[in-house]
Amino acid sequence: METTIQTEQLSDSILDNLWCHLREQRPVTLHNNYKGVPVTYDAEVAMVSTEYVGFIAHPLQIAAIKLERQTYIQSKEMPDPIRAKPISIDYTNRVVMVEKLKRPHVINYDLNHSWITPTQPVTVELDSDMGGTMDGALATLAALENNLLHVVVEVPLEVPFDRQDEIRLTFKLPENGDLVQVAGVVYSLTGSQDEESRRLEVEGRAALQDEIAILAYLAKREDALISELEAIYKQLRKGRGLED
């Protein structure tokens, strides 16, 4: 779920690229995230100086920047995302001014895929021919390229599985209760003895019917979260603050 890139302070070449975008009226792409859903739209470069940059952005991007208190700038000429902090936002005209542009060590979320957290507890049965059976709690669910599914499960500290072990996950999707199964391998297993549980991530695939059910669930949750973000923007445009 993380994106790792090289660290480098803002350079003249980045400013030159932004100047070119402004002069040639070419948009950049802004990246944010709302509750696991990428918020990615083109933005017009409205102003460039040595201290700050101004963008005319999509309403959902404006709301996400307000909530996240940062954004990532990317373009064909700047393939590595540049992190920026907002200093002022005009919600009516959709203008955001940003400063402190730099390349981060790590981006702590996926810029391209949704990682959905269920709104209610979901029990996952983990089963392996090598390690027996145990239960965990569904943490996040994502659909990536090539029909690959990633399932993150909260499990006890002691688990009978290791990385690259073949494993099967069986669980009921929230809301509609469809029973689905994902078969794959343990992609990662994180956590320490100081924590009460560990996070086990499985990369795998599902049978076509199960895959369709999972994709439908993810799409429904994405739509609901985007609707939340739309409501937040309308609230901000009316001059109403947000509760922390």
Indicate the structural class. alpha+beta
What ranges have pLDDT less than 50 throughout 5 or more consecutive residues? 4-10
CATH topology of the largest domain, by name, is Thrombin, subunit H
List the helices and strands in order.
Answer: EEHEEEHEEEEEEEEEEH
- Give me the CATH architecture of the largest domain, please: Beta Barrel
Helix content: 10-25%
Strand content: 35-45%
Over all CA atoms, what is the radius of gyration? 21 Å
Tell the overall outline.
elongated
**First-to-last CA distance:** 25 Å
Spatially, the strands of the biggest sheet line up as 3-4-5-8-7-6
- The CATH top-level class label of the largest domain: Mainly Beta
CATH superfamily of the largest domain: Trypsin-like serine proteases
User: Could you give a short account of the major beta sheet?
Assistant: 6 strands, antiparallel, barrel
